[in-house]
């Protein structure tokens, strides 16, 4: 079952897509799904729905609400790319993390949530998921091909809960030197598990995305599911 809920923060309020498990498979744990640069689109809703089918409460907050509420774009047209990049370039990362933290608090109050709350993010959300591992009380985090993480590695020592990372070996938005810097800074942390995906470009796991790679996406998603199933 899915619905839209409203989350209130000190400077306003924003919507979030909420998907809940049905029947007896509810796990008692929740996942905050963090958007790419395209807003809460069909991909993000399907991602939430898929987690709900696995027994998690899943919620995706509208992180662009201060710029433009209810943005919904795809990667299929140049016009959509240009709008998405403009929103991304104007996005306040610190406020975004604060909104995710508020979402973590809100989903802990949802019926049936009596265990851990994890975060998973893609692209922009991949960066934000990493930052939830350093700045919030998230119980687990998963980062898919995060962009700009190399600029925030000074926070890596604050990671105290499990963080799973999926890195595309041919990510056009994360240069090789940045990827190596990220891996080098994090691979020694016992809380961090890193997987790289040879031959894959950015967004290889985006549902119906132009760079989708079926084998790699299935492998990454299976690792993600296992990661969250271990969350208490």
Automatic annotation (TrEMBL):
The protein's matches in InterPro entries, at most eight in alphabetical order, are given as: AB_hydrolase_fold (IPR029058), Dienelactn_hydro (IPR002925), Dienelactone_hydrolase-like (IPR051049)
Domain (Dienelactone hydrolase): residue spans on this chain:
14-230
MF annotations from Gene Ontology: hydrolase activity
SUPFAM superfamilies in the cross-refs? alpha/beta-Hydrolases
Name the Gene3D superfamilies on file: alpha/beta hydrolase (3.40.50.1820)
The highest taxon in the source lineage is: Bacteria
Q: Where is the signal peptide?
A: none
Q: Which Pfam families match?
A: DLH
Write the protein's name: Carboxymethylenebutenolidase
Which species is the source of this protein? Answer: Cupriavidus agavae
